[in-house]
Amino acid sequence: MEAHFITGTGTDIGKTWLACALLRHWLAEGRRPAALKPVLSGFDPLQPQASDAGALLAALGREVSSAELDAIAPWRFAASLSPDMAAAREGRRIDFVELVDFSRRAVAAPQRPLLIEGVGGVMAPLDETHTVRDWIVASGLPCVLVTGSYLGSLSHALTALEALARVMRSGIPGDGAGVAAIAVNETPGSTVALDATLEALSRHVAGIPLVAIARDSPQAGVARLAGLLCPEAV
Ligand SMILES: Nc1ncnc2c1ncn2[C@@H]1O[C@H](COP(=O)(O)OP(=O)(O)OP(=O)(O)O)[C@@H](O)[C@H]1O
Ligand SMILES: [Mg+2]
User: Fold this and answer.
1) N or C terminus: fewer CB in 10 A for the chain?
2) Does residue 121 have its Cβ closer than 6 Å to ligand 1?
3) Could you tell me the pTM of the whole model?
4) If you take atom 16 of ligand 1, which residue's CA is the nearest one?
5) What does the pLDDT look like over 147-183, one tens digit per residue?
6) How far is the CA of 207 from the centre of ligand 2 (A)?
7) Domain coverage including residue 40
8) What pLDDT is recorded for position 171?
């Protein structure tokens, strides 16, 4: 469907970096991709270009203006906290129905490929009752799970997949569309080698493509993932 939700095992794992790399790859192929980062915490209005939304807009070659930020990241909060806490700091809350409507409008629009970056990890709370997982399912999009290669990342990746599998493979109509790919973004300085992480993960994950993103030569992994998510020729 050429529209995907980018989630991860946690914050700072490389969702935005990878989304930007995919957007640049598709632009270089002559496509006209789109990206959203609907919920943003830790947003500094004096440095919008340093935010995830700023990075995505720059990758798309769009201006980092208030109008563009409103278009792709309407829920912006100052505190670097989980979205529910960051919103509460400002006496606000994220209306889950509005967030899902916003995401679905982008999915219904024709522009492809489309990436929607989540916030934090799969189970990051959005309000008192909803997490990112609920948002992924409600968006109807297949997701890309970004994980790392640090010691402990295998458990984090498998835990995230288990959480997703619980809601995505129940057979209930309207359930999420599954996990399209797992991107293992190499953790710098890790004691665990990237290929060893992939090999170990592959023994526990059946039927989901695993893509290695090597720090010193990321392009091969980015290109493979871009092709998996958006296979048709231009
Ligand atoms: N493969 C990579 N090569 C170089 N830098 C990377 C790579 N992956 C991540 N980074 C850097 O690591 C930091 C964290 O990555 P990023 O911001 O993409 O994480 P995130 O999962 O989007 O975090 P958040 O939860 O805040 O949205 C950033 O400074 C980013 O540029
Ligand atoms: Mg990000």
Assistant:
1) C
2) no
3) 0.96
4) 14
5) 999 999 999 999 999 999 988 865 554 556 699 999 9
6) 26
7) 3-229
8) 53
